[in-house]
Design brief:
By secondary structure, this protein is mostly helical. It contains five helices and no strands. The chain starts with 6 loop residues before the first helix and ends in a 16-residue tail after the last helix. The relative contact order is 0.14.
Amino acid sequence: MKNFFTTKRICRAGVIAALYAVITWVLGPYAYGPLQFRPAEALCILPLFFPESVPALYIGCMLANLMSGYGVYDIFLGSVATLLAAFLTYGTGRLIKNHVLRVIVGGFFPIIINAFLIPLVWILAGSEIAYWYEFGVMILNEALWIYALGIPLYFGLVGLRNKGVSVFIDAKKKPDEQ
């Protein structure tokens, strides 16, 4: 555990959490509700690289959801959806080494978990929505952010890591070992 909590990883986690929250807050009411405009979801691809992004995304989502009109359900259950998806995405990164397969499978978890849980958050918060309709909308919405922005983010990070940009790699490991 001593090697896990390096200064670099703690800083990276803070930046990830802050980015998620701020990107979401800037979009105001457009980032919440049945048709979410939430490009911060592209950051959910980061657990493929960084284990510290798992708790960072959870905290960032929790902070972002403080501004949600769906109250405690979105703050906690919405954030737990992100935590679970991030953990499964991290596991994918550990198991799959082929970049294309890795990003496709890793991106699947935020899409499907949010599609199942977020419409439930809205129902618990008192919205009168059609669950399966919103499930479909969330699949499309999440897929847009995860794949349209997440794939370029993923391959951009691969390139930076291969160039040896120290912010994106941990010490004493080659970029493709992480």
